[in-house]
UniProtKB/TrEMBL annotation:
This is ABC-2 type transport system permease protein. The keyword Cell inner membrane does not apply. The chain crosses the membrane at residues 50-68, 80-103, 124-150, 170-193, 200-227, 239-261. Keywords: Membrane, Transmembrane, Transmembrane helix. The keyword Transmembrane applies. It comes from the Bacteria. It comes from Lentzea atacamensis. The lineage of its organism: Bacteria, Bacillati, Actinomycetota, Actinomycetes, Pseudonocardiales.
Amino acid sequence: MTIGHPPAHPAVQAPLVNVPWAVRASRASSFWRLVAVEARKLVGSRSDKIVMAFAPLFLIGVMLLFTLPQSNLASAGRQLQPMLVVVQLGLLLVFATVIKLVAGEWQYKSVQPTLLVQPSRMRYLVAQATVLLGVWLVCTLFTFVLYPVLIEMAADGINHDYLLGHRQGWVLGVTMLSTALVLLTALIVSLLIPNTGGSLTVFFIVVPLLALARMLLPEVFGLIYPLEAAWHLAGGGTGWVQTISSLVVWLTLLGVSLVVLSRRDAG
């Protein structure tokens, strides 16, 4: 009986340890690469680019509207407090883009590729938070530089002394806090409502209504008004009870939104 040759086995493929694309795929994405990806998402579409391009012009227009027509700038508080309205209204285009970034990813499931590359939702959230930190710094700096110039022009126009020049630390603190609180409100809304239209509706309608209600009944609505702490720092707050209550309310909502995010289905 002729003994045949053993059946041929298919060639064993060599490991892809030296193939460039395989080497790149085996590495975990660096944190700063994730930050760069999230930053590109902020201006990912043509409409986002247009909105962000017009955002500084819109902010300047709102500043002019709420500074130059002022008729009573006799105190430092009166010279600074219009800035809180400027921050809430003048940065609407920026905050709209932020809401689209956070809520839109979950609405359209575009978050899936990011979570497939790196499944850690906390790492993903920290990367987004880093981008938002950059947005906050840019908005704060822009407002801090331009607002005092315009309010000084307004004070000179009605023969009032400009009183903020020697209180730069106070002005910067109010600018930082007010911008951070409005940005935090936009983030909380977009995390709790993973729908771009719903988040924008709540942010653009409910938050301004809270501001109006706070003007009418400050002792009541100051308890839940997101900018109450900034008003307190600027000298126009209702009291410590309202300030502490509003901080507790919105920090609690932030905690709830993070828990909801950790359990949300990305499929």
